Amino acid sequence: MTDRLRSAAGIGGAVALAILLLVPGIGGAPFDDPGEGQHAEIAREMVASGDWLALRLNGVPYLDKPPLLYWLEGAAFSAAGAHEWTARLAPVLGTVLATAGTAVLGARMLGPAGGFFAAGALLSSTLFVSFGRYVRPETLFVASIQWGFTGLLLGLAEARPRAARVWSLLGCTALGVASLAKDPLGLIGPLAAIGASLALCGAARPVRRWLPPAGIALLLLVGAGWHTIALRRHGFAWYALIDNHLLNALRLRRFPDEDVPLSALEFLGTSALGAFPWIASAALTVAALVGRRAWNIREEQAWTALALWATAVVAAFAIIPFRLPHYALPAYPAIALLAARAWHERPPRRMIAGHLLVFVCLAVACALVAASDGRAFMQTVFSTADVYTRKEEALGQTALSLSWSALQPLFVDGALIWGVGSLGLALALRRRWERLGRWVALTAMLGMMPAVVVAASATGSSRAVSSMAAEVNRRLRPGEVLVHEGPIENSGALEFYSGWRPILLDATRSVLGFAATLPESRETFWDGARLRSEWCGNRRILLVTPRPPLASAVAGLPEGSARLLFIDNGRRLYESVSSGACSDKPAAGRS
């Protein structure tokens, strides 16, 4: 078999592996809220309105993210209906494309086996897999950036001018798509990393060699086209470019949401554990590149660019004041490639011995956690790595309702998988089966990923709004009012599942904070005074709140005027009771 066929087989195998990992059970769990629900609802409203340029959530303008995710979801909804599985096809597509881009670049730089290994390392990075089918733009963003690197770096390495041009144009288009997926920084950052690596080895000029004029045109057309249209809306440019990016990074936003950022150490720890153990191997490659002063060597230019990108992403977000767990994800394909090079070049026995030690420690740790009551683990992990848990703790809202019994079997599996992996590595070390050792390590890591997918689904189900929405739909009648207390992203799929659009109470500290200031949104947002004035009126009101009774607006309503109907996944459903219950005396809190 030729190298080209082996490369194609490796790339195809990596793609198949991603599909097999993520597609089974793709629609089995309801949307995680907050997290997935709001993004599915934005796409549903886009399709319902027929306007695919002006994004809306809860009927008001949504300006936080560009439209690529919602366009892909909308296409799936139009073709097969609005379901959990159709919404999750877009992030799965991003995961598959990121995997393929890593395999393609790895095959060219390390050979077919190295490309497959790098793709496998990416697919066995816990944080990346956690977002593998999660309805957010993260995997599309990562995929676009990775294909940007793949196209531009292969264009530089290609000796045939026509093929080099095709690769370069592909890379430029992909970086434009990154801007359309999530953030213009996805366009600028990779270009800066590649340009810096070329400048360091004295090969940055002529610029058209790696960034042709047609490529620049594609960058601007794809990456700035939608933004140019959107910027014409009054106030959008300031909100999108200044408040939502620059001021957000400095924690000086005028329209902040409720997200609680990680500390620098928490971010570094989460980023490292999310790509463990591959980040350790990648660090060895980076250290070797620095030791060789590889930035001066043209043949190492591509690796220098990847090392610059990976370290710059992690370091930059460790420095700025606002950081969330997934901010390091764009560096993960580069980390996977750098890790694959370490296995390709470093003494195999040392790599096997190092991973043997790691796997033994992981097996023991999993066994100890599985034998515990799980409280320490859940408190540590969710309080650090889960955005919503951090927000709940900061606001004093109801804690995560996920039970330890849902996660404990996963640690039993982990102890077994890493235990067997340790035996395999020990055998490879003893018998000097050096080529086999790296595949044992990769197989063990991949073997844990189904457990990660199951854990993510269990976590999402434990705070989904689907059951609450079904109860709302059962009880609410035309002419009555549904109110949601707090930012709608906390129950983003409420309208998706119930079919009823809520009034938003005390909800301006939200992704809709800027939209709440627009005249068209005035009747969508209520404050406490408006709720109290409406509560004892002629219309029956149902109130959904994730806040505990004493922290909720319910505590300020007339005593006896609110009846608790339903509790599910940390949310409460109240109805207004107006027949003789309303008085000037406020409630003292409700159970």
Q: So what's the overall shape?
A: globular
What is the rounded Rg?
25 Å
Poorly predicted regions are: none
Query: What is the spatial order of strands in the main beta sheet?
Result: 5-4-3-6-8-7
Mean pLDDT: 91
User: How many strands in all?
Assistant: 8
Q: In words, what does this structure look like?
A:
The chain is mainly α and 591 residues long. Among the domains are: 347-460, no CATH class; 466-576. It is built from 23 helices and 8 strands. The strands form 2 sheets. A 6-stranded mixed beta sheet has the order 5-4-3-6-8-7. Strands 1-2 form a two-stranded antiparallel ribbon. Helix 1 packs parallel to helix 5, helix 5 (112-123) packs parallel to helix 20 (434-461) and helix 19 (404-431) packs antiparallel against helix 20 (434-461). The mean pLDDT is 91.
Short description:
This protein is mainly α and 591 residues long. 61% of the residues lie in helices and 5% in strands.
Characteristic terms for this protein:
5% strand; two-stranded antiparallel sheet; mainly alpha; globular; 591 residues
Secondary structure blueprint with pairings:
Elements: H1 3-22, H2 37-49, E1 56-57, E2 60-61, H3 68-80, H4 84-110, H5 112-123, H6 126-130, H7 138-157, H8 161-181, H9 185-200, H10 213-230, H11 236-249, H12 264-274, H13 278-291, H14 301-319, H15 332-345, H16 348-371, H17 375-385, H18 387-395, H19 404-431, H20 434-461, H21 466-475, E3 481-485, H22 494-498, E4 503-505, E5 525-526, H23 528-535, E6 541-545, E7 562-568, E8 571-576
